[in-house]
Amino acid sequence: MSTIWFMIVAVMVAVYVLLDGFDLGAGAVHLFIARNDEERRTVIRAIGPVWDGNEVWLLAAGGTLYFAFPLLYASSFSGFYLPLMMVLWLLMLRAIGIEFRHHIQERVWQGFFDTIFGVSSILLAIFFGAALGNVVRGVPLNADGYFFEPLWTNWRVGAQNGILDWYTVVCGVVALVTLVVHGSLYLANKTEGQLNVRARKVASWLWPVQVLLTIFSLIATVYVVPHVLDNYSKWPVGYLVPALVIGSLVYMYIAHSRRNDKGAFLASCVYIVGMLVGAAFALYPNVLPASTGAQFSLTIYNTAAGAHGLSVGFVWWTIGMVLALGYFVFVYRMFRGKVKLEEGSEHGY
Amino acid sequence: MNGALLVHRLQFAFTATYHYLFPQLTMGLAPLIVILKTLALKTKDERYDAAARFWAKIFGINFVIGVVTGIPMEFQFGTNWSHFSRFAGGVIGQTLAMEGCFAFFLESTFLGLFLYGEKRLSKGLHWFSALMVFLGSWMSGYFIIATDAWMQHPVGYERVANGSVQLNSFWQLILNPWAWWQYAHNMSGAVITGTFVMAAVGAFYLLSEKHVEQGRIFVRVGVIVGLFVSLLQIVPTGDAQGRMLARNQPVTLAAMEALWDTQPGAPLVILGQPDMVAQKIDNPLVIPKMLSFLTWRSWGAEVKGLNAIPKEDWPENIPLLYYTYHIMVGLGTIFIVVSAIAVFLLWRRKLYRARWMLWILLLAFPFPYIANTAGWMTAETGRQPWLVYGLMRTADGYSKMVSAANGWFSFLGFLGMYTVLSVLFLFLVRREIEQGPEPVLPPLPVIVTAVPNLPAGVR
After folding, report:
1. Which of A70, A176, A299, B328 could form a disulfide with A125, with the two C-beta atoms 3.0–4.6 Å apart?
2. Which B-chain residues 394-413 have CB contacts (< 8 A) with chain A?
3. Are residues A81 and B111, on separate chains, in Cβ contact within 8 Å?
């Protein structure tokens, strides 16, 4: 049962990154590709009806993590105290940037809101990448299963590591580039004209960067945590995941050259899922490895909630997800197609 | 109290209190918007649609702030109260995760449709999305109340070898009798906020002679529903909660009433200041035997006093508890009086011209916020010194790895961030009220010549 919940939480995190990833990426890139008020409004309209629903996946994944692995939630959230507080503040600023822009018509303030939206999106992408880096690298857990990390120490990966060291910074950059590509491709799909051209251009320019960073981060991971390969040698079927990642990058290139925005966006989705599944596969059955010694690592076994709770949860979780999936299909169908400013602007975006 | 515990408590109390200023209005407005949309659908009167659209804007602003201040609540269970989460996560993780999976998806999806989709949806579907927003926000409320109810009155759990508690009965957790009354009381409290705010905006329009048509709708819907929920707030919901307290948390009730000695025929204190040293009430105004009657339905029944209970189990801040409780009850009573007079005037067809009453309605809107806040403070300070009643003390639940200094860092950060939010919020809401609902033009003569075939549902 705990293995099933491990997979469920991993899937929910992946869905969150796929969905909120494109609106984070759109936010990170919009300062550069949307050059006038009309284009910026188009960007916001493209994500306006869905970003909040996307962010709900963060809450749902967080709630599910709390419910299925309470000790992991307790330990990781208190250990990552400082960056999480900053993530909370950034999420607030970002919501303000998106939702309150259209209430104020003055130009000065619109620039202000756009900057808030852009900067908080960029920082959030980096933070999320660094967070994943921390989980893969391991944290200094004590015998009680708790730890506390300062923001940074000497930037080296070692006994006294902080949240940020060279490795987690690399992960942050990978996340930023990945989400910028993802967001640009979403915008390319949802817009027309100059905006569409520029969004596609950003994505195709970043393609070689993304490829190099992927290779570099994989090498760095194996260098920093050699045992990430253990599960892969145990179950060689896992090598399908990196194959999928490579395939998605190749296909993204082909799609770019054919100006196939849909295909490229799909490739980016597969890439993100592949990277996350690859990390989850390497971690299992650990959920938070200890840099202080394998005996302190948090695993799905020592952090899971009671058996009764987990099986009851499986019933309502399935019902809840079927419903949520229904709503999502409905909304995306409702708002499908390219964004046109003149149509249905009752809410002012 | 050690420094770290103090700052973790301060931060949670502050972020929770601030957060709840917003959901109480959204949960209160949601059913009112459904009422307006239903009236629009039934009477085909465009004015109700315009009214619903206006309140949807206010709802939207509140919703955004409610969401961004709500995310920290879920996070803080892990960041600031990790020992509590480790202890109780196997039980309350259920309700918190269900809130995410059922309520949030529903609410956010249909709110998006409701706000952005009026032109794309048929009238019926648009009404339906308002209903779903109402359902989602009220479901969300239930899961949170069920979580708090478990902390007040733990049920459906067992202790396991590692010292934590785990769920052993899902239905006991969901159907906790404590949750039902607390939920009913809390939700009618939220609707009181919604109705008083609606009536206040209406009164403002009538007094300043702008948007008069809409002002009348707001005042009318506000005071009628307001009277109804103000009555529900005292009987049966408040009354039932008091009796539940007497049975399950007698020390909390004794502290709320500042009753030191166990006695038959205990009085109800209306006004007065508790003197903690001399153990008496200064400047008392009391109704003899009333407390016994209210709690046990018998004038002579014995009510347990604080001195019958060991001091270490007393709530730590009895004066604060006493005052918040009395503020809540006092204001609740005033709400009934105010809305009853307003409904009476409405019935006599004098309300829209009774400027004095409109002024009262306008100035009354902050008080439901105060009463709701005081009510939650009563519930939560009354539970002290327990975090989970009888199972875990508050002093054992905080994150021991997060130092006082890091706690102050984030607490000050929240203070600053919420100041910015408050300024923005007040500014935006003022703008919306200033702008008011859009005027409804008389319907144009219908000259339908040819309508292209539109796909079903898209209009």
Report:
1. A176
2. 399-403, 406, 409-410, 413
3. no
